[in-house]
Design brief:
3 domains; homodimer; ligase (chains A, B); alpha/beta; 27% strand; AMP-dep_synth/lig_dom (chains A, B); 509 residues; ANL_N_sf (chains A, B); 14 helices; Rossmann fold; Long-chain acyl-CoA synthetase (chains A, B); 5-stranded parallel beta sheet; 26 strands
Chain lengths: 509, 509
Amino acid sequence: MSFNLATILREPRRAHPDKPLCHLGELTFSYAQVDEISGRVAAALLGSGLRRGDKVAVQLPNVPQFLFTYFAILKAGLVMVPLNPLLRAGEIAYHLADSETRVLVTFELFADEAVRGAAGVEGVRTYVVNLPGSDRRPDGTRSYDELYAAQDTGEIAPTEADDTAVLLYTSGTTGRPKGAELTHFNLYMNCTVGGELFGFRDDDIGLAVLPLFHVFGLSSVLNVAVRYGGTIVLVPRFEVEPVVAAIERHRCTIFSGVPTMYFALVQADLTGRDLGSLRVGVSGGAAIPGEVIRAFEEKVPGVVILEGYGLSETASTTTFNISAEQRKVLSVGKPIWGVQTRVVDEADRPLPAGPDQVGEIVVRGHNVMKGYYRNPEATAEALRGGWFHTGDLGYADDDGYLFIVDRKKDMIIRGGFNVYPREVEEVLYAHPAVVEAAVIGRPDAKLGEEVVAVLSLTPDAQVTGEELVAWCRERLAAYKYPRQVRVVAELPKGPTGKLLKRELKKELG
Amino acid sequence: MSFNLATILREPRRAHPDKPLCHLGELTFSYAQVDEISGRVAAALLGSGLRRGDKVAVQLPNVPQFLFTYFAILKAGLVMVPLNPLLRAGEIAYHLADSETRVLVTFELFADEAVRGAAGVEGVRTYVVNLPGSDRRPDGTRSYDELYAAQDTGEIAPTEADDTAVLLYTSGTTGRPKGAELTHFNLYMNCTVGGELFGFRDDDIGLAVLPLFHVFGLSSVLNVAVRYGGTIVLVPRFEVEPVVAAIERHRCTIFSGVPTMYFALVQADLTGRDLGSLRVGVSGGAAIPGEVIRAFEEKVPGVVILEGYGLSETASTTTFNISAEQRKVLSVGKPIWGVQTRVVDEADRPLPAGPDQVGEIVVRGHNVMKGYYRNPEATAEALRGGWFHTGDLGYADDDGYLFIVDRKKDMIIRGGFNVYPREVEEVLYAHPAVVEAAVIGRPDAKLGEEVVAVLSLTPDAQVTGEELVAWCRERLAAYKYPRQVRVVAELPKGPTGKLLKRELKKELG
């Protein structure tokens, strides 16, 4: 009759209440504590007038309050809208309005920008999580501490398995960000099946440096660890030294990261450091080069890197390389339990196996979102024929292993973050001097890709490249704006007038 | 977006297509065969005009066609209505009409009665499964073989997790049989969590003598075995010799049965027989006396009997004793993962722990049915307050173990005192001469009800009724011991081997 994803917290809490669920620096919270605190926050949210299905936006780094708020939202039968802390006011306003968010939980360090964003949207109440010892927050906001004041009832709302639990914004392949509706069932299945893929046990300790507001961190790191009664070590941002120190201190067994993180660790001097507790490195978010796998496994003996593939719309994991014996380097592995993938041509006809049979990857199974929130057209288009269309190009080999050829046609992945060229192009097009804009990724040793804009300008334009970079910087998150602007007389176009980004990429490459 | 329970067949079929899924006598069907044949039957059902959500009644004993039809129904996005082969025409008509069944699949041996039942209902097409070598079937019916003629498309309908997969008729606590709607999610969760309880592995071989049309056989025997890629040995009806022979021949590792089956095996002469392959005996459906557990485990060394508790409305397993170390004899164990139970008083207020705190057992979790089909009143009543009301009486101890005291409707009220028949039966079973015991209430002008025991005894028993009354009197409170003892050759039993107290009551009434 009912199923609530918060069950993944309640069950291990019953089995071992005093076991640490998470560490952050000197702080530790046990299962019982996270259960009880999230119960209080749930009661406070419901007490403040929220009703089943209402949206609560959470714009927090990897701090314990993320966990408290997340489980509170689930327990109360509300819906979490995770937001990237780097969003600018205009972007925040868009997300809050589109999702019909009623409560925003943000962090002291980006509260000013968040409040500017929320100001443009009616009826949003904002709570601020402070840094330890601080109580600074913008006017009109409330302290997150207020949410601790209610009494934990122990109740978990009897949501249905197919009810939406998380509304995860993603640009998908086209257009403005859309809210992918992930259900209690989607997320339960993904952490349950996902945790089995690398044999997550209750004595495993996962390093949580991937952002929890992203589906990879949320499902494969946080949910998996809680589902199987393990522990996570929160690290709010990736830097080599704190990450290595956290692994050493807590004897972490699982590291989950994007390729640039593995690359940074391979590059770092780890002489005298002890990463021997690690047994598995999970990689996703972008293709990990075979060189990096080999170098990392040589540097950290005993660890095996297992690569997977997934998207926001597929509640994270879709395919996975399940073991050192069964993996194929450069492949993202095979579909996980209960998930089917196909490679299809432009008319949605299945293609046979083989590297010369590149087509769009489509997915079906328990991991596929319910749809895009309040966007039936985009939902129908993405889910046409009963398959979710990833927009990613790839092929399958004879053994059923999937190979991604091109990530989401033109999407740029800069330091693990997705940058959708169209969004940046929209900002550039808004500048009076810009005639045509193409935003592409230039290969970059450190970040994977760097964002570059190629533009043509009006004949009388007086603007400099620096001024155009600054224009974008004011309007976009730090990871999105182009670091380089190139001005050309005309952009290359195909017969239909479509910009040929591939041509531009070749020139830059 | 979608989840279909047939995934539990498709996944092991991919992993090991040629492995046996089921044996029946000399017959064996592999995973690939069951997948392919059920695909053909699915295509035939859809080809005959059935649409998503239509009902197909299945009235079959434990034969491979049960599996073909069941998985075909799931794959086609239809709904299975399992029917007991022993139903009479009037009962069959009621079930077909109430469930709006469009297709009935029945068996040669009870086809005449089935057809008489179906005749009273409009628009039901009947297919008959024949015995090997026979093609006898009533006029107006079709041969099941027709359903093999279509082509397997390999398709599995994209049902939602919360869609109904099985409509399981049950009398519940009151009134005419009602169709409990079990969803793809209910049944998936139950076999997944259920199989973990006794560590079902892909090399396990389960004996399937419990009827598959009953929730215990369907979920805990068939679904569990398929979900974990194991094998089942079909035995169409319980008799000691064929069961023992099947265990020996196929080296069965798991025996699932009701207490009367264990009891029959305890009574049987097993000299020279080899049941050494068995590692777990799962017991459910009724309370298993401690005496029977001890005797069985002594007789079959290496086996452990684990008792669970569940109902049709809870997609089978609700509580379980997970291991020899953790079990408590006479308790049905603790709630399984993701399930909560409570003991409540008549005003639905939770009662504290303790044997003197007997109340109705209520259940909440992923296993609870969606509701009773087309019966909103009964649904609202059974699920009031968000908890399913089992109609069973029991209590919890301080460790959270549940003890079933009795069915609410079986409880005897003698002179204002509650007498729980099970407690009295336990005392009778402890007597060496008693084979089977049923304690019931006989209408009594003065006391309301009087306690009566109906017993069957060992062939060489010399004991008198008075002696048995005295035996109870020594061991039970004055208001509890039976004032009358009746000895019969055999107690009336239902198809699952459950004692039919209602029949006894009728005789006494």
